[in-house]
Amino acid sequence: LQYLTKDFGQYDMHEGLKNIKAPTLILFGDHESTIEAGKKISEYIPDAKFVLLKNAGHFPFIEQPDAYFEAINDFLD
Fold first, then answer.
1. Quick check: 68 and 26 in contact, CB under 8 A?
2. How many domains does the chain have?
3. Which of 20, 60, 73, 75 lies most in the core, judged by the most C-beta atoms within 10 Å?
């Protein structure tokens, strides 16, 4: 994974994120190590919704499926 992501720091994706026009839901588990990055991404996407699911890590759809799908359904309503 480190090899695949080693060049990510060279790219500034902020402008691209600002151009996203689709409704965007960003879901993170509260045990995930990259929560701050997810929050930052959601700040750049217009009208993005950031949701932090309790007691979940990198796989909230497995660890907390009810909360995960509830968040998606709430977003789609």
1. no
2. 1
3. 60
Taking only the tens place, the pLDDT of each residue in 16-38 is 899 999 999 999 999 998 899 89
Q: Decide if pLDDT at 66 tops 90.
A: yes
User: What pLDDT does 13 receive?
Assistant: 76
Q: Which two tokens stand for residue 7?
A: 């060049």
Among the listed residues 8, 24, 14, 21, the one whose alpha carbon sits nearest the alpha carbon of residue 44:
14
Could you report how far apart the first and last alpha carbons of the chain are, in Å? 36
**Residues 45, 51, 56, 59: is their CA dihedral positive or negative?**
negative
The whole domain housing 24 covers 2-76
39 Rama sector, left if φ>0, alpha if ψ -120 to 50, beta otherwise: alpha
